[in-house]
Structure formats: structure tokens, C-alpha cells
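Researcher: Sequence recovery benchmark, item below. Answer with residues only.
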């Protein structure tokens, strides 16, 4: 059980690293602040963009990582 959880934690950590590295940066300065806010305000289907899919993958894998960490501490 311990080795299965360890392998699962390594896989989720790799998924977190890859999904965070694939996300675009959001630091565009002041011009990005004005254009970015209007772009997201008027954007349609915000849930289907690649950025939102990567953000959702990151959030789900982070929760899985936390759960496997807690499980590893309880099994040990």
C-alpha cells in the first residue's frame, strides 16, 4: 500500500509540474492589466479555453497530491 501511494504521489507531482509549466504567464505589466481584464470580461466560453483546462488539471492534481501525502502519513 505504501509503495502504491508513493508511486501515485510521484505521478501527481509530475502532472502538477507539467501543468504549471504549460500555463502562460500573466505578468504583462500595466498594458496587460487593462487588456486582460476586458478580454476576460467579454470572452465567451471561458471554461473551454486551454488556460482554464490547465488550471483545472492543476487544481485537481494538487488536491490528489495533498490527499496522497496525508494517506502516506497515516499509513506510515
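Model:
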Amino acid at each position: 500500500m505504501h509503495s502504491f501511494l508513493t508511486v501515485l504521489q510521484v505521478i501527481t507531482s509530475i502532472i502538477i509540474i507539467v501543468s504549471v509549466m504549460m500555463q502562460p504567464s500573466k505578468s504583462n505589466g500595466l498594458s496587460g492589466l487593462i487588456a486582460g481584464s476586458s478580454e476576460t470580461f467579454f470572452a465567451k466560453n471561458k471554461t473551454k479555453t486551454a488556460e482554464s483546462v490547465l488550471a483545472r488539471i492543476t487544481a485537481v492534481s494538487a488536491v490528489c497530491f495533498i490527499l496522497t501525502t496525508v494517506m502516506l502519513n497515516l499509513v506510515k
